[in-house]
Amino acid sequence: MTDNNTGRVLVVTAHPDDPEFAAGGTIAKLVKEGRDVAYVIATNGNKGSSDRAAVPDRLVRVREEEQRNAARALGVTRVQFLGYEDGELEDSRRLRLDVTREIRRWRPDLIITSHPNRSFGNFFAWHRDHRTIAGVVLDCVYPLARDHMAFPELLPDHEPHKVREVHMIQWDAPQLIVDITETIDAQFAAARCHASQLADFAAFEARVRKRAAAIGKTQGFSYGEGFDRVVLPG
To answer: Is 17:197 a contact under the CB 8 Å cutoff?
Structure first.
């Protein structure tokens, strides 16, 4: 995954379920390698339902519990919820400060996040919130988390930190393909925890297996997950 396979990893996504649905095999692999992985979830997921009878406040509690259970299934014990409104994530000073604080708190070598650019081959996968959080993460990696003069109110509790690498989830012609052949079943076990989001788990599994097989095939893997990769100079 990186030159240093012992460094910390921070997964920053928009919604509960994004880590498992989009990068669960990779997260499982990192944990298996002994990496210390944490999550930051930007929104509360309160609009993630097609049920007309769903109550937003209750949905928040359900989805937080599902996310904690899913993370635990992959061996991730730290999940931080920022609590922003689902579907209305904005590139604001408050969000940049929150993400900068979490980067400085966890001090990861590697960050996994969504992609800031919409891929029209997978149009429905690139929710506005996904693109917003990805752009914010990149801005926080450089320069906000790195520079002491950015967000001085975070000092001295959260000292600046330099991230070494960022992997942005990408399914169309990705720069980096991770072999998840041995961990895709762990991904599905974790994904099952998001019961509120999966009315037809069999269809979900078939769709993800098809996508992972297509991505992995280019490198001779049975299953793969794809990312665009940024390596920052030391």
So the answer is: yes
- The residue among 138, 141, 140 whose CA lies nearest residue 109 is 141
- The residues near 198 (Cβ < 8 Å, ≥ 6 apart) are 191, 192, 204
CA distance 119 to 58: 32
Entry pTM: 0.94
Q: Report helix, strand or coil for 176.
A: strand
Instruction: Return d(Cα 215, Cα 22) in angstroms, integer.
Output: 13
Counting Cβ atoms within 10 Å, is residue 107 exposed (0-12), middle (13-18) or buried (19+)? middle
The CATH superfamily assigned to 9-231 is LmbE-like (3.40.50.10320)
pLDDT tens per residue, range 90-147: 999 999 999 999 999 999 999 999 999 987 666 666 789 999 999 999 999 999 999 9
Q: Which residues contact 195 (CB under 8 A, 6 or more apart)?
A: 66
189 with 27: CB under 8 angstroms?
A: no
Report DSSP state, residue 88: -
Which of 232, 194, 230 has the alpha carbon at shortest distance from 113?
A: 230
Query: How far, in Å, CA of 98 to CA of 90, rounded?
Result: 12
Sheet containing strand 9-13, edge to edge, reads: 78-84, 37-43, 9-13, 110-113, 165-169, 224-231, 176-179
Q: Residue 75 — left, alpha, or beta (φ > 0 → left; ψ -120 to 50 → alpha)?
A: left
Neighbours of 91 (CB within 10 A): 12
Question: How far, rounded to the nearest angstrom, does the alpha carbon of residue 60 sit from its chain's CA centroid?
Answer: 18
